[in-house]
């Protein structure tokens, strides 16, 4: 019996950890309208029109529309309480558009041209036959803004309540550490709201899209969770679900679907290697050695499955198989993956040590050293203080960061490398907050704590200054409409992998 | 205390009679597609593409669409069971269009230009986040056809079930009398299906639109019900609801809304006068004299409220107040209303007699005679055998029919009148089945039973030959797109007032 044949057991254990979600009502803060603004993110910001209380003073006719700002990004279902004014002899027909960002709330979705399904955009056209009435709509939205267009109404309609019944595994955000500046306290709060909104029955990547459990995101969520909510049950459940969804070769998926039942999603070679570090983090936090031992063989298996991608010299092959995510940008994956592999091996070694598997620990440590030495010997340009990736010797930030995180270099060397890469024109910089997180870790390792903090202030703080109250999936300052999917409308504005400033600020 | 101050009591009694609806699943008969056809009603008919079983053999991609024919017009909610084929990483977005008629199923609703709310058209655009799954949609439709457009799908979707969970107070249609020809048996069946689909928690006028309880429709439904389902509880409940919704003057509304709570709808002077005949029919069928006595003062009150509309000669004033429906056409209402008033008085007189109110009976009978004599004296052209209405002495079919039904003329005179009006060019003929019903009654009174039957064969039979499996709200042979509301899309194809051939055929 291979160890990963215990998938049914893992699934059962995961299901026993399924959280009861918290539910709470969120009322609008204000009636708002989007306005074009050169300085605003995506050229659009919300202008207050009236306090929310004004809503129920106003009767809307056919063709009218309004937008409410819930004051906070939340995840949940809409509850509408509506009453007719005047004639009330026919149904009410509404178009509802839920949006995370002002631009999204203002856009005409018919122009959507992205590569991902337009069905992720959060709009419906529905009819309500009997008014007055209170209606809870079935679809779950991730939203801060809700636009309601009154397509048809008998005469007029008043909205006595427009609420989100918010839902998440946790509700209240822990207060920021007292020592933080107001700016950093705001960053911390936005980070934890991002995390909170992704904490559903599993750790989702983004509650608007894709609502999936990604191993790479989970690792970062687990770290932010350890610094805040400390709901390790949800981390354990998520990790067990990933384990339970591994394939017959023992390959842990990069992501899984959990509804209506567990399904294996994409295979992602870097994420699979991060199973071991994620497990290590959990065992360290909870002391649950039994769980650790249980999943350890599966963690080892991820490296075994990756090993054919390493050549005789101990270097990741240029033509390594599989999808190495690393970041949403086109750059060579060799050295980032070299770093991830070593990083994984070191976590395996530490886990083995913790479990008293001395020989196993020695084996993993030796393999990590072999890969680290190969990297230093063949791919490190000691003169330029840069790591070169792929057949062209490409320099990317990710290609420096992962080897640093893998402990291939001393902190002093790491500092030189991180300062050197800044000077390389055209070196691919981090695109997603996921990669930015790893840069922060690298700065910390290199003793560049101030640089890390300045980076948080500049990068995540930049989102806050642009109005974010959850952190975005994609943020490249100045590139407002950048999207990995061909249309910024589909970008997620509340994305798990962006929540990690909380780890550094706490 | 005025008698109609007992509205709360009537409402309570009505609520105690609220029926438990029957529910049953209706599966599609076939996959169909609309095709243009010069001979078809509204130039559109459905062509079979494949038996319904073919549906679950087929996977649909984005941009695909299909239409199913449920084989029978029903009222209910949709249940969809769907499963993904191939990639399943994003929601399914559908446009659902439920239709009673082929033309409606084929039309682009964005071109709708009618006067009634477009929200009555039965379409929604909704998203389903998690597949496979079974979904019951909240809206109640009246439909025979369902068009599903797959707006977005991850890869493909299979519809394992597309059902209507039908609902009505009754389910099975009584078999037609054995003596009927196949053609008339078909008419009977369509009539009873029409009635069945309108028998919900009240007797609705039309389950697509307006879903209201109209007193005029109720009277005809009650007659067809007496000849078939004999669910007098629902008639009593409906009549009590109308009584309970009367205003502080005791005016019974022409129609009421019952959801979410009882509301007075339009005032309709002819319908209000028909409260007494409707009550009389019910008491005659059930023998429930107690109910009759209870509501009798309210029935009298309708005539009292109308009486200011009658002049010193005993004729309905040209400038009588209020909306006299009579039929969906522009013609003078004086003589139709004269007939309705006398008709009402005679019912009151018979009720009073039944209850032993001798003096009251005498009073109503005398008033009926006064109005009848006035009509004969001032408005009957004995040479032309025609009744003249309004200041211009207008001749309309309704202006002949209602005085005949009121018993102002002998059967022989009635025959002369009915034959004479056929020869009057430009005389407004019946438009709706509601008025056609009264023509049938007039023919029967006049001893023209064969003419009545031929009329059923031609008029209602005409709808059946055009594919109707429920009778329509509006039918003027050859005028396919006629609508009282500016767009035939909004016409109801299952309308209570069209169900009465069952009274004549049974």
Automatic annotation (TrEMBL), chains A, B:
Any single biological process term in GO: carbohydrate metabolic process
Domain (Alpha-L-rhamnosidase six-hairpin glycosidase) ranges: 187-505
Highest taxon listed in the record's lineage: Bacteria
All residue ranges annotated as the Glycosyl hydrolase family 78 alpha-rhamnosidase N-terminal domain in the record: 28-159
Alphabetized Pfam families for the sequence: Bac_rhamnosid6H, Glyco_hydro_78_N
Cited SUPFAM superfamilies: Six-hairpin glycosidases
Protein name (Swiss-Prot/TrEMBL): Bacterial alpha-L-rhamnosidase
